[in-house]
Amino acid sequence: MNTAFTRLVTTTLILLSLAGFAFANGEVEDKAFPSKTITYMIPFNPGGQSDITAQYQKEILEEELGVSVVIKYVAGAGGAVGWSTLAKAKPDGYTISGNNLPHIIAQPLVREDAGYETEQLQPLYLFQTTPIGLTVLKDSRWNNLEEFIAYAKANPGAVTIGGSGTYSGHHIAYLMLQQLTGAEFTYIASTGAAPSVANFLGGHTDALFANSNDLVTHNDDIIILGMGTAERFSLLPNAPTFIEQGLNMKAGIDRGVCVPAGTPAEEMEILEAAFRKASTDPAFMAKMEEMGMVVQNMGAAEYEAYIEETTETYRAILEKLGVI
């Protein structure tokens, strides 16, 4: 037999043998999910509610999943930059993102250039709701909502109200306030809750639509003109609701996490279980409640149904506001 041919055959047999050994030991098979770092995107700036929540979840998620979870900030356009990035990501379970309602519903309904559709963000888990309130600093010219509205009516556009993003929970609350009162304000959008609070405390906006945990944190320095809850918020019992002051208005933000549409069911089940573990952890729940957030626990199927129902609610609100 030709020597070169013999060597070729021998080498081929050795390579096939090694490949068989590797396959038998799972070295070329798909590794069980997850087998590498998971990216947890936050579509807002660091320091906001989405970031704070993710930071408290991170350690438990890593314990449950057995891999590192890296928090990545992709801020801009009230979250739309992050969600459009997620919509284009590979649906393999290794990229997830915080998502907010009504943002992910309202933005695609209102903007042709939102960069994503609600259906491209597959719901995974809903873990909290944050009521929204309208506030001013204690040294402001207004002591209550009546004075605030009266001044705005007398000075159209002069009063600035800050908030996180556009067609977000804060922005929609602002639009509702204008419609219900007939007053005209000027909305100042920030790229997240943290910078909107900083702008407000620094005197760069007259008022702020703020999340309940920020209202609780800064309660000594502010006057809460109205809360967007059906009844008075337990951590802020002295703050009147909009409803009790004659405005049929509720406002809040739901927070959860989503994956790109098309992510396999097996990967979703593993991630859902990890988020359920993190979100039902007693220490996590206690911390969220202490900070003024209302803990929720909806798995993927229930969360998807909730988004479908909530979409119709906000479609009606946006139609009434005349923005769609």
Overall, the morphology is: globular
CATH topology of the largest domain: D-Maltodextrin-Binding Protein, domain 2
Q: What structural class do helix, strand and pairing data support?
A: alpha/beta
CATH architecture of the largest domain: 3-Layer(aba) Sandwich
Oligomer state of the chains in this structure: single chain
The fourth-level CATH homologous superfamily of the largest domain is Bordetella uptake gene, domain 1
Kindly state the percentage of residues in helix: 40-55%
CATH hierarchy, class of the largest domain: Alpha Beta
Distance between the termini: 81 Å
Q: What is the helix/strand order?
A: HEHEHEHEHEHEHEHEEHHEH
Question: Average pLDDT value?
Answer: 91
Tell me the fraction of residues in β-strands, as a range: 15-25%
Largest sheet descriptor: 10 strands, mixed
What's the β-strand tally? 10
Kindly provide the radius of gyration, computed on alpha-carbon positions and rounded to a whole number of angstroms. Answer: 25 Å
Any low-confidence stretches, pLDDT <50, length ≥5?
Answer: 8-29
